[in-house]
Amino acid sequence: MHGQTESSSFAKIVVIGAGTMGHGIAQVCAAADYPTTLFDIEQDFVDRGLARVQKNLDKGVKRGKVSEAQRDATLKHLAGSADFDAALAGAELVIEAVPEKIELKQKLFQDATRVAGEGVLLATNTSSLSIAKIAGAVAKPERVIGTHFFNPVHIMKLLEIVVGPQTGDDVLAAIQAFGARLGKTCVTVRDSPGFATSRLGLVIGLEAIRMVEEGVASPADIDTAMCLGYGFPMGPLRLTDLVGLDVRLSIADYLSEHLENGAHFKPPALLRKMVADGKLGKKVGQGFYSWDSK
To answer: What is the DSSP code (8-state) at residue 4?
Structure first.
C-alpha cells in the first residue's frame, strides 16, 4: 500500500468515466484539494465532463453555496485526459464510474494496476455488483473497495462504503478518512448483492412501477404520496427517471438472480417495455415524466 494509507492523503486520484457519476466524483475530489484527473476513452467525453463540473461550480457561485475562490481552487486541482497511461501514472487512488459490466470493471482495474503499480487503491462506484468478483481479477484483492456515491454527487451527502471479504482494514480506514474529507457521511456495509441502498431503494421503485402498470395511481400521485406521507425527498418514480430506467432494470435483473429471496426484484413488464422503447428517463427526456431541456 502507499505510504499514507491510514490518512486521507492521496497524492493523485484518478476517476475513470466522465459521465453522470464520474464528473461529479471528480468534482468533489478536486473540491477537497486532491489533485484529480478525470479519464475517459474519448477527449470529447472528457471535455463534456469537465464542462459539467464548471457548470455545477458556476451554479454554486450564483446561489452563494460556493465562493469564487473555492470554484477556482477546485478547477485548479482538476485535469482531464483521454490517454490512459498518462492519466494513471502516479495514481494512488483510482475510482471507476463506468457502466455496470463486471468484465469491464475487472479489466480496468487490471490495466490501472499495470500502470500505477500494485500499491494503488482501487475503488468501484458500482451500486450492486460483487466487490469480491471485481477484486478477484487483480493481484492483491485486499486493495479493492466499493465507494457508492449518489447522484448528484456534489449535493448528496451519503457515501456507501462496501467492504469485500478480502478488503484490508487499512484500505477501509483510508477510504473512511477520504469520505470524511469530502464532507460525506459514510455508512459501511458488507459485500452483498445490492448492498443496503440499492436493495431497499430498488424494491420500492419496482413496486411503484407495478402500481403504475396495474393502474393503481399515476406516477405523480404515487410520488407525492411517498414524499408527503413518508418524507421521501423525491418520489420513487421520479428517482427512477433520474437514475435511468436501463440502470434500474440491469440492477433488478442482477438482484433477482443473485439474492436468495430475489423474486420480488423480478422486473415488471412495464419497466422492460419502457427500456425497449428507449424511454430511459431524464437523460433522454422521457421516462415516467417528460423532461424538457429546462
So the answer is: T
Where are the CATH 3.40.50.720 domain residues in the chain?
13-190
C-alpha neighbours within 13 Å on the C-beta side of residue 67: 3
Please say whether the beta carbons of 124 and 138 come within 8 A: no
Rounded to 5 degrees, φ, ψ at 84 are: -55, -50
For residue 254, CA distances in Å to 150, 202, 247, 274 come to 20, 12, 11, 18
| Pairing assessment for the beta strands 185-190 and 158-163 based on DSSP bridges | parallel
Per-residue pLDDT of 79-126, as tens digits, reads 999 999 999 999 999 999 998 899 999 999 999 999 999 999 999 999
| Domain 13-190 CATH class label | alpha beta
In the chain the first and final C-alpha atoms are separated, in Å, by: 46
Class level of CATH domain 197-283:
mainly alpha
Closest among 8, 16, 52 to 179, alpha carbons compared: 8
Query: d(Cα 265, Cα 277) in Å, to the nearest integer?
Result: 21
The model's pTM: 0.84
